[in-house]
Amino acid sequence: MIEIRDLTKIYRMGDVQVNALDGLSLAIEKGEFLGIMGASGSGKTTLLHMLGLLDVPTSGKIVIDDTDILALTDYEKTMFRLYRLGYVFQDYALVPDLTVMENVSLPAMLRKDRTEEQTQNDSYGILRKFGLYDRRDHLPRELSGGQQQRVSIARAMVNKPDILFADEPCANLDSENSKVVLDLFREINEDLQQTIVMVSHEDWHKDYFHRIIQLKDGKVVAA
Amino acid sequence: MGKKELKVASLLALRSLQRGSRSSVVLTVLIIGMCFTNMIFLPSLFNGIGQSITKQIVDYEVSNVIVSPKSGNQYITDLDATLDLINGMPGVQRASPHYSKGATFHFRQRTLGVNVRAIAPTDEKEVSPVYTKMIAGSYLGEGDTGEVIIGRPIAGDAAVRQEDEFQESLGGVRVGDSVTIEYGNGYTKEYRVKGIYETGWSPVDSAAYVSWTDMEQVEGSALYKADLITVKAKPGYSEQFIKNELLAYGVGVNGKVQTTGDLLSKSMGRALQSFAIINMVSLIVSIIITTVVLFIVITIKTLNSRKQIGVLKAIGVDKEVIMHNYGFQVIILGILGIVLGIIITLVLAMYLAYHPIVTPEWSATMYLTPLDLLINSVILFIAALIAGYVPAYQISREDIQTAMRA
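Structure tokens for the assembled complex are given below, as produced in the milestone run.
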């Protein structure tokens, strides 16, 4: 379970102060597929970055399964991201010099509790599940946008994270590929009881979410 | 850093070099290779020149130790006793006396001033390899009189006109020809040219040799004095050991004892100092170029990959892994560059071994030892590591948001 209390993020650009998050509080249940929606600049991505430990808030608290994640050291945060969080980016963010297999297995290779054989089996397993096994030796540039995003999701899922964060994962995809990706998220959520927190601004994505929170000016305006 | 982290860092490094810009990799390796060559070429060439000069001085001039008259004296006197003493000492292969006299050579219409050196041929053959450098005729024998051996530049070439000669000569003397030698004391004598030699060491090639017996005729009496005595050490005995022995046995009372090293440090000291300065400048410039090039290469690489670095950190890759990724790239580039540099250097060394740089004074090849290669490799490798790790360290410390926004 994720518990967010009075989360504030203030950006200062010279004399201008922008409250990207303004005392936001929220709870996300385990196994929930949560959609974060809102207009551009409403604070969706900022919130996701705070939850994913990619940025630090100005104030507030985030507790994941009784762990105050903002109190962790830099190294502990890295390990928390590696073992317990998965992150899917809008632009796939794959390592261009690594093959599909290498991209997917990269986070698994760093886990100290997995053997080399287990890492390989996990990676092959997820590639088969996501229909990417035949493309395992291809480089990202040799794949379509939809395939690259599926590789990105596979990479985020290979360590079986507690929470999967997705930042507008369909923004660069056509509607057909977007549907494939969203179906995949739904399948992961239903089959594995995977908690997913996804940022989107597309209305038709609403059908996939268990719950939607609407943000405006860094505050929850509807839940 | 555990084994797994190192494995991931090396995987990222290898793939970046394999699948990244090939031209960048080739160019970087080439620059490191050239810098390595630059670091080692001039110093080893200067060493080669130094070695060549030293060898020629040892072989043709002073051997390992030289005994010369004490200050204020013109000759070493009591020669027989001194030679007996030196030859009886441990570590001494042979001592050879030299007695020089200025003379004028006459051949047909040519006249040439030459320094004539009297030697005891049997002793001299044990001390100096001039006898192996005969290009025509034969070396002097013990008791030869009326016979002379001359250096090739003195003999000259009949095909070259006098006005075109680089160095004055007798205009094409051949073995068996007669030359008239007029000594400084007025003694004049007809000599048969017994042999012509060429050592490549100018002071010796510009001289002529007669036997000790012949010089006694010139002087009109038995010679019990010498300008100098050259002493050859037996293999395994150092010059310093021989010098110490000579001094211990009292040779220093009758003459001044110096090793080749003593002489070289006086005559060549300034030249060697200049070589050392040039070597140091060459070394420093090469290290700076390598460091700057690698620093720029890795800085550009890291700046171009800032977003990717941010993403890697976002998915749980530790900053140490990211830093070592770039560190390993530098290590690989450095090793490849050094290997290339060693290959280029060895090719140059082989070429110069077959085609030495020849001047009238000396001929030189590269003097290169495995230790030179190792030391330069280590220096360049350390410079490369510093140049690569500094930008890698800086970029790996950047926070995720800043990196991802780049």
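The CA atoms of residues 90 and 169 of chain A lie 4 Å apart. Residues 175-192 of chain A form the longest helix (18 residues). Further analysis is deferred to the final report.
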